[in-house]
Design a protein that fits this description.
Elements: H1 2-21, H2 25-35, H3 40-64, H4 70-92, H5 96-120, H6 135-152, H7 156-165, H8 172-198, H9 205-225, H10 231-253, H11 258-295
Keywords: Cell membrane, Membrane, Transmembrane, Transmembrane helix
Protein name: Probable membrane transporter protein
Family: Belongs to the 4-toluene sulfonate uptake permease (TSUP) (TC 2.A.102) family.
Length: about 300
């Protein structure tokens, strides 16, 4: 029962972060499931089963708050679904013990990328004129992001959202809302791929329901919070969480244990805390500058 409550809380926190950042539900949930010792394919399958419902709720919420660009959604759905289905079938065909360190390494890399993006990269300027993305840009993006999402248990948001935000003139909230809304089709396609490859019996449905319940509660809240919570602070928190949870698998794989393992954990924790403090101060400084410009 305690494990189910923990999983529900994981689903709730992950969806709050995902709905606010346009990324990290799958990464956060899969990283923690891997830390519980669950095989990569089963962990990714469980997360995607839950995401079918949570992304639907998140999409409806974003649509109601006007956080979507329909052109982006329509152009991402088909390639994203194809990539996710292929990724699910690929991951299911590999032995869990062999692929687990590689999945953790991929998640670790994305965790560092998220930290870099939200700590050091400047925010893109947003203008009233929103430039449309072409099919040539969105089709390969959807294929790659969908494939990585299924194989890593997360990756749709961390790949698609930063790429879309990199284009000046694109509304941040509409990028986040569009990525979250289109993720429903990606999660559904990955789920079908896992069902065909793994079968129903491999999935722990109680875990899925627990993750789903937490995500459903958080989805409408996150869609509203996307307008008011500083995204770079949440980005640093989730990036550090992903690094911390996946470092354990990688370190154990290469034979690090005992005092050395604890030392690495301590260093990571200190750096993570420093990043959060820096992000909070950066946000405060930005707010003060904005206030000075208004009053000046």
């Amino acid at each position: 029962m305690k494990k189910l409550i923990v999983l529900a809380l994981i689903g709730l926190v992950a969806q709050l972060i995902d709905g606010s950042l346009g990324m990290a539900y799958g990464l956060t949930s899969t990283s923690l499931l891997l830390a519980f010792g669950i095989a990569p394919a089963v962990a990714s399958a469980s997360v995607h089963f839950a995401e079918v419902v949570t992304t639907a709720a998140s999409g409806v919420s974003h649509i109601r708050f006007g956080n979507v660009d329909k052109k982006i959604i329509y152009r991402l759905i088909i390639p994203g679904s194809i990539g996710a289905f292929a990724g699910a079938c690929f991951l299911s065909s590999l032995p869990g013990d062999i692929v687990k360190p590689y999945v953790s390494f991929f998640l670790l890399f994305l965790g560092f990328y998220i930290l870099y993006r939200f700590l050091f990269k400047k925010n893109n300027k947003v203008t009233d004129h929103e430039k449309a993305f072409s099919r040539k840009q969105l089709i390969p993006l959807g294929l790659v992001a969908g494939f990585l999402d299924a194989t890593g248990g997360g990756g749709w948001g961390p790949v698609a959202t930063p790429v879309l935000l990199a284009k000046n003139g694109t509304s941040t909230r509409k990028v986040i809302g569009s990525v979250d809304t289109s993720e429903f089709a990606v999660a559904l396609s990955a789920t079908i791929g896992f069902l065909i490859s793994l079968g129903w019996h491999q999935v722990n449905w109680m875990w899925v329901i627990a993750l789903m319940a937490g995500g459903l509660i958080a989805a409408p809240i996150a869609a509203y919070l996307v307008k008011i919570i500083p995204s770079h602070i949440l980005g640093v928190v989730v990036g550090g969480l992903i690094i911390f949870t996946n470092a354990r698998t990688i370190l154990q794989t290469v034979g690090v244990s005992g005092i050395s393992l604890q030392s690495v954990y301590t260093i990571l924790a200190v750096l993570w805390l420093a990043g959060i403090v820096y992000s909070i101060r950066k946000n405060k400084k930005t707010n003060n500058l904005s206030l000075s410009k208004r009053t000046g």
